[in-house]
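This is your field. Pick holes in the following sequence-structure pair:
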Amino acid sequence: MSRAFIIAARRTAVMPLGGAFARLLAHELAAPVMQACLIDAGIDGARVDEVILSNALGAGGNPARLAALAAGLPDAVAGLSIDRQCVGGLDAVILARALVQSGAAQVVLAGGAESYSRRPLRLRTDPQGGAPVQYDAPPFTPWPGRDPAMHKAAADLATRLGISRAAQDAWAVRSHRLARAALMPEIVALPEGARDGFTRALTPEIAARAKVITGTITAANTAVAADGAAFCLVVSEPIARKAARALHIAAGATLGGVPEEPGLAPLGAIARVLSPRPRLARIEMMEAYAVQALACIAGAGLDPDIINLGGGALARGHPIGASGAILAARLWADLDHGFGLAAIAAAGGIGSALLLEA
């Protein structure tokens, strides 16, 4: 099988729900990022075989096709949309790797785009003919008793593992501090914004005053809903040899875990991509909740000193379908030697991990 490489990776800034990107649809966020990847790599759009786009809130259709057309790609690019919720952006890159390895494609744009601000309202019909009922989140298991709300699952995890609110708040403060100092060269500057809009000077004192959501979970140690997009340009080895820079996609895995504990779901995928275990230089760990990041760091035996050195989702926000691809784009920007790991969890107990080699 052929090896697969990333030769360009870009993202938009991440803006909170109702913020600077509130008027943009998912494909309008995605298209300029895809174009920037092609420009960076010197690849003509006519060479793109496929676009794989993760989207969780668009409620159907084929946003990958819309993004491909909006980016000026050939009509022949059909576009493939996937929805695996929070892990989908990373899964798009993993799927692109499989297409390239199999020889089914040579050039794939893979990532995610989420317009949380423009998500459609969802209505569930009544089989008895009553009025439709609005809902926000679909079920993630067939058993309501094994499908906790994400906030509750995070609070329960903190209680079970003994992770204090102070520890969660400290990780959130660290995330904002590092994000404020980072350069973020992977961001595509849109007219609406060129820096992550939520990052701020969070202090322990401010975090201590944050609104409590449930248990030790607060507005300070939880990632906010957000809009954004990110893509990686995944290519075959012959094309990568001609690129100015290429990161080898050494491994990728997506595994299910215990549905009640989605925060720990990445541990199985991390273990799989790190076997045999390489020496890691950088790690991008999703921070949907500070407790989720801390639990995965401890559970996988990872070095916190190399994790999210440009800040994480606590300082950016969480554009669901794009968040995994943002991790990959951040890793692309910062990994200049050795191996880098990206990992993320999703509702229903799903975890994904990607291992890149500089």
